[in-house]
User: What shape does this take?
Amino acid sequence: MNIDEYQRQAWKFDQHYDRRETGITIALLGLGGEVGTLQTNQKKRVRDGDVHTDHQAALVEDLGDILWYIANAATWLGVDLGEVARSNLDKIGNRWAQHDAPYPHDLPPLPTLDMQSTTRPAPPLPPARLFDGAFVAAERLPRRIEVHIAELTDGSGTVRPVVNGIPIGNEVGDNSYDPDGYRWHDAFHLANLTILGWSPVMRALLKRKRRSDSSVDDVEDGGRAIAVEEGISALIFESTRRAGMHTVAKIVDSDLLKTCQRMVAPFEVSVCTAMEWEHAIIQGCQVWSALQETGHGVITCDLDARTLAVRPMTPPELMAHATACGPVSAPAPAPAPAPL
Assistant: This one.
């Protein structure tokens, strides 16, 4: 696109076209803010490695915002971007000789940052959170649990977890036009359960809701808390998938951590730190990756040690899982219409 034409098109979106001083001020302050955003994103990438979602898309967006504010500032100040560009090239040509190095876009892409060398070892976690310690044993989460999860044998591509030989929850698929592995997102619920000591979803599936206290049952173990955790799991899945961090990341974007903490502000888990959330997300990613790779797994959750372990299922375990889940029942036929 011609740069002068871009300037004219950009002007059509100025929301303060009838207030000159306001327009100039917003253009200049906006320019400074967007440059700061670009700098912050680059700082994060150098500090943390390639764990920040859609780095290339973020660059295009940030540079586009900078260009828009430059164009509008030029418009308000009465100069054309084409004139600015020509004048700038004349100035630097008067000072520096041209080189013949190849244009970067014509070169092979640069390698991504080395995740292992740019991230720190995970710090140790404090003692396990115990949100149900005052409740009777039947309403407390088990301190150690083994979950068998595998694709069902009916070819549907759905999965179902089994605990102690009993299926829990519903069959889960990717629910996506393009298979993306969302069916394994229970990895994130199990990571929440193990690392944070909190998972209203798993508490309901394991039948450990704290019904003896109606307010706790309603708030902490109720529908809203379950919906929030499902939303967090979907957010983590999508954010980490786009960043390609399911297999390699040792650090989580601070914005994602803040969002998770804000979403759980009304609940008991709000006392968990960003570091605890980071551990949960990273371990959830590792379990998800193992399940996606093998199509099945045995996940051992140690809530006291706050650790997750996953291994492939053995042939007998796969057979036992298939037997426990059983064949998928066909939907019941619709009742015949009543005779007239």
Notes: The chain has two domains: 3-93, 118-325. Confidence is low (pLDDT under 50) at residues 113-119, 328-332.
